[in-house]
Amino acid sequence: MSKNTQYVARLPDADGHIDYPQAEHDIWQALYSRQLGNLSEYACNEYQQGLIDLGLSDSNIPQLQDIDKVLLDTTGWKTAAVPALISFERFFELLANREFPVATFIRSKDEFDYLREPDIFHEVFGHCPLLTNESFAKFSHTYGKLGLSASKEDRVLLARLYWFTVEFGLIRNRDHSLSIYGGGILSSPGETLYAMGGEPQIKPFDLVDVLRTPYRIDIMQPVYYAVEGLSFLDEIVEMDIMGAVAEAKQLGMFAPLYEPKSKAS
After folding, report:
1. Residue 257: is its pLDDT beyond 70?
2. Of these residues, 167, 179, 188, 191, which one is catalytic?
3. How confident is the model over 64-83, as pLDDT tens digits?
4. Cα separation of 125 and 139, whole Å?
5. Alpha-carbon distances of 145 from 67, 78, 91, rounded to whole Å
């Protein structure tokens, strides 16, 4: 949880409707139009199909009830309106109950390219389209159940699995090209172009390696892990994830590929 957040989530009324001012709809429209061109080239096919299935507006922030209707019909999931940041415990609890947390605020114009706190554009535009996909939905549900029963220490490592898959995961296609399925990239115009450029390292997915890889939330990622198709998430679900957590703890973390965060930042 963060006590220094500059954002305040908007609360739904008795009917579950959230009234956003026009200025915030304008931000949604600007983010949507800016990212749409990138997605046709770089987003994985399953994401693009999910975006069509959800029928998101390109000009207005969607209502969560409308998203829920599609998710419930496809994979049995729904959204849950939450504040900007929630506890690990609450996060795992929601996923284990097939509810995806959505912070009901939208970023300001000066944080278009990268946002430290997940906003509604990140959650809905970045993640919800793939929640129409069975493999992604099953992985998210399994992850929630594992996290709910894990120790505080083990949750730190599990967070890395989520980070390098659901948030910043890539797909290595058969022609060796890359596609994006991580919502942290899909919702960020800046990170999309960065991830598809030549600067970061792209490594094949290895569960123990992922669990040993540190990350920072406030920078472009220096390394990404690529799976061989979104259906590979089904294979991860069948792995001994907590056994890999124990192995990763024994081996220790890899050296960071980024500069340490300054105390002044």
Report:
1. yes
2. 167
3. 999 999 999 999 999 999 98
4. 19
5. 23, 16, 10
Give every CB contact of residue 154 below 8 A, 6+ residues apart in sequence: 242, 245, 249
Distance CA 90, CA 148 (A): 9
Among 123, 127, 140, 188, the active-site one is: 127
Contact (Cβ atoms closer than 8 angstroms) between residue 158 and residue 142: no
> Closest Cα partner for 7 from 108, 102, 88?
108
Predicted TM-score (pTM) of the model is: 0.93
Instruction: Reply yes or no on whether 167 is catalytic.
Output: yes
Under 8 Å CB-to-CB from 81, ≥6 apart: which residues?
A: 9, 11, 12, 18, 64, 102, 104
Q: Verify whether residue 176 is a known catalytic residue.
A: no
Per-residue tokens: 175 = 């022609």
Q: Which of 46, 93, 122, 141 is catalytic?
A: 122
pLDDT in tens, 20-41: 999 999 999 999 999 988 999 9
Residues comprising the chain, all counted:
265
Catalytic residue at 187? yes
The one catalytic residue in 24, 187, 188, 191 is 187
Known catalytic membership, residue 122 = yes
Q: Are 101 and 52 a contacting pair, CB within 8 Å?
A: no
